[in-house]
Automatic annotation (TrEMBL):
<protein>
    <submittedName>
        <fullName>Ribonuclease 1</fullName>
    </submittedName>
</protein>
<dbReference type="InterPro" id="IPR036430">
    <property type="entry name" value="RNase_T2-like_sf"/>
</dbReference>
<dbReference type="InterPro" id="IPR001568">
    <property type="entry name" value="RNase_T2-like"/>
</dbReference>
<keyword id="KW-0378">Hydrolase</keyword>
<keyword id="KW-0255">Endonuclease</keyword>
<dbReference type="InterPro" id="IPR033697">
    <property type="entry name" value="Ribonuclease_T2_eukaryotic"/>
</dbReference>
<dbReference type="InterPro" id="IPR018188">
    <property type="entry name" value="RNase_T2_His_AS_1"/>
</dbReference>
<comment type="similarity">
    <text>Belongs to the RNase T2 family.</text>
</comment>
<keyword id="KW-0732">Signal</keyword>
<dbReference type="Pfam" id="PF00445">
    <property type="entry name" value="Ribonuclease_T2"/>
</dbReference>
<dbReference type="InterPro" id="IPR033130">
    <property type="entry name" value="RNase_T2_His_AS_2"/>
</dbReference>
<keyword id="KW-0456">Lyase</keyword>
<feature type="signal peptide">
    <location>
        <begin position="1"/>
        <end position="22"/>
    </location>
</feature>
<keyword id="KW-0540">Nuclease</keyword>
<keyword id="KW-1015">Disulfide bond</keyword>
């Protein structure tokens, strides 16, 4: 009997232990990405102001903010691997596109390196189970190409002209043209008006396609929001 019990114990340990380790090693895994784009006009017209990148004023278009691994419960991992610092040499073939599609607007003016480094270290390192550094930036650039937010809005008569538009019409026009429901984040201009700041779309774990968001971020815009020029 003792031998039987002892062997049962050993067997159950053999079964349980690997699953415990598997659980802990996947603790930095994630369920989906938010692909976040920012409207430069709304970054720049706040009290904080902005600075154009050293390469000059970006196009009047949405720019990439980041590709953020997230959990379905709304929480997210960050700064997952400090042994994999940002290494510009691994993405030298992407820099021209990054300057165009992922411009920095923070002050003081920079080339973009600091922004990209921050995004890689805070968010990118949490997607390493699926994509490496080059793939991380390439994936974001591909997504930007596939999601023409400004085109979706202007097709619906929603233009960056300083006028106000209903949040619903903004959401609907993006859903209509991109095929998935976006999350709209607002911020405030210098006079305190609520305005269209960032658009969130959800992307599957592999980074290959858009999905409906498993969970939306929090925050409120108001029913009518401004779309400032840039
Ligand atoms: P803020 O507090 O300005 O909205 O966000 C600050 C930063 O927190 C964002 O730029 C981003 O790095 C991170 N962040 C905010 N919300 C989320 C989220 O829902 N998911 C992830 N992955 N990061 C977030
Ligand atoms: P997150 O909000 O992703 O945590 O981090 C944003 C960080 O990147 C902030 O520290 C911010 O100062 C810096 N940053 C540099 N350029 C930009 C930009 O164009 N837009 C935003 N939102 N943050 C930028």
């Amino acid at each position: 009997m003792k031998i039987l019990l002892a062997s049962l114990c050993v067997i159950s340990l053999l079964v349980i232990l690997p699953s415990v380790f598997a659980a802990s090693s996947s603790s930095e895994d994630f369920d989906f990405f938010y692909f976040v784009q920012q409207w430069p006009g709304s970054y720049c017209d706040t009290q904080k102001k902005c600075c154009f990148p050293t390469s000059g004023k970006p196009a009047a278009d949405f720019g990439i903010h980041g590709l953020w691994p997230n959990y379905k419960d709304g929480t997210y991992p960050s700064n997952c691997d400090d042994t994999k610092p940002f290494d510009k040499s691994t993405i030298s073939d992407l820099i021209t596109s990054m300057k165009r599609s992922w411009p920095t607007l923070a002050c003081p003016s920079g080339s973009g390196d600091a922004f990209w480094e921050h995004e890689w270290e805070k968010h990118g390192t949490c997607s390493e189970s699926v994509i490496d550094q080059h793939e991380y930036f390439q994936t974001a650039l591909n997504l930007k190409q596939k999601t023409d937010l400004l085109g979706a809005l202007t097709k619906a008569g929603i233009n960056p002209d300083g006028n106000s538009y209903s949040l619903e019409s903004i959401r609907d026009s993006i859903k209509e043209s991109i095929g998935f429901t976006p999350w709209i984040e607002c911020n405030r201009d210098e006079s305190g008006n609520s305005q269209l700041y960032q658009v969130y779309l959800c992307v599957d774990r592999s980074g290959s396609g858009l999905i409906e968001c498993p969970v939306f971020p929090h925050g409120k815009c108001g029913a009518e929001i401004e779309f400032p020029s840039f």
